[in-house]
Amino acid sequence: MGFHRQRFQGEMNAAESDLSLRGRTPVFAAGFPVGMRLRPLLFGLLAVAAAWSVQAQTEGDAALDHFQSELSQQCPQKQLNLLSARDLRDGLDDYVSSADPDLRDKAQQAERDRCSTTDAGAACVNQADLDTADQAGRIDEVARAICGSFLRCKDQGACDYAR
């Protein structure tokens, strides 16, 4: 059986004409234009990312709400809901450094996972610590430690340390 030059040349010409778009929209073998196949994929990925973001935000908000509620119950006269992110960071650092090794490791891992970008600040690290404590069922301990670290807040960010 020999090489059929005419048949091969005809197949090559047909392939070249299929590849030559001549102003037409590129088509996959299934007959769908390229844009038609990518749009649902992109919208699907966007929807998943948005859902994940909302879930993460809701969980974070729940931990912060739980913490604020505990502060209000344990030391309402101190008005520690007025703590700045930096002051809260100081109190959380003290708590995390004195926590048991398992919780300390989890908190440090959460801080690295969530707050390793250069944009992340004290609020991000605070949220990671509060989420970790809330998941471990220790938000009441955190509130107790913060209540012990500060005397009172007079205004937003104007708080006196107990030390």
What's the helix and strand layout?
Blueprint: H1 5-19, H2 34-74, H3 85-98, H4 101-114, H5 122-135, H6 139-149, E1 150-155, E2 158-161
Antiparallel strand pairs: 1-2
Report the strand count: 2
Q: What fraction of the residues are assigned to beta strands by DSSP?
A: 5-15%
What class do helices, strands and sheet pairing give? mainly alpha
Low-confidence runs (pLDDT<50, min 5 residues)? Answer: none
Order of helices and strands: HHHHHHEE
State the major sheet: 2 strands, antiparallel
Oligomeric form = single chain
Outline the structure in words.
The chain has 163 residues and is mostly helical. Helix content is 67%, strand content 6%. Helix 2 packs across helix 6 (139-149).
Note the main attributes of this structure.
single chain; 163 residues; mainly alpha; two-stranded antiparallel sheet; 6 helices; elongated
Quick rundown:
By secondary structure, the chain is mainly alpha-helical. The chain has six helices and two strands, in the order ααααααββ.
